[in-house]
Amino acid sequence: MGTSSEATLSSGHRLADDVRRDLQASPKRLQPRYLYDALGSQLFEAICELPEYRITRSELHLLTTHGAAIGAGMRSPLIVVELGGGNGEKLAVLLSGLVDAGVDLTVELVDVSATALELAARTLARFPAIRVTPHQTTYEAGLQHIGEQRIAEGRPGGMLVAFLGSNIGNLDPSAARRFLTMIRGGFRSGDRLVLGTDLVKPESELVAAYDDVLGVTAAFNKNLLVRLNRELGANFDLDRFAHRAVWNAAESRVEMHLESLRAQTVSIPGADCVVAFAAGESIWTESSYKYESAALAALGADVGLARHDQWVDEDAHFAVTTFNAV
To answer: I need a surface site. Which of 34, 123, 189, 228 has the fewest CB within 10 A?
Structure first.
């Protein structure tokens, strides 16, 4: 899990098409963006408060401690773009340091979750002098629009893109490289990326973070089936599925699954399909890749981003890394 990235922008047709395709694949899958409907977004905010899920607290600590260094040397006026930022609290920490330094700021929020954008906008209202523009769309479309607007308006100064909450971990390695390449393609010299990344840690800690004792993450995962029942008229019986979190060491990722507890057949009229499950067969709903801190510099270098600085919470195994366009 990273921060919220719901697909409320998706039409019913897109949801239906994705569900029909992915549940007839092998292995069965569902796109993680569909986890974040209004209830899913609220459940994720609750997950961030769990003692087992240390990402948010660790990242906030690093941003609070090193916020001034993260934005040091950036050109004013500065466009700050946050991708999938959840409730906006982490961005507020970054903005506080920039405001104190007298930087002229505008903020662009990009998320497909209407709920997340509303929460973030309320959080950032504490900065009445900063213009905040929400974009309910995908990261790629949002960045493209912001870049085109930057050119059309002839905006001077720099751009700081924040991709926090270990959202990069929701992308497989090849997709992560493509995504960073896309970000780099919209940069001018001196623009900066700040990346929050969860690191490899003991398996017991990783699994606990995605299978908490209160069952909040299980509810978050199962809510995806509730969404399909509501929006596509499916007849998933939640008692016949169990939340599973497993650490795949070979691929360096935590996987979330919904495991069928018996052989069963589920009808999904809105997707025009019927799906058969064997006992023990699962739906793979999300992957969260974990990194080694030293590998992040190499990842940036591969796409033309030079590591500017890095701060690591050694206890929680979490890193905040800044990259400059070269």
So the answer is: 189
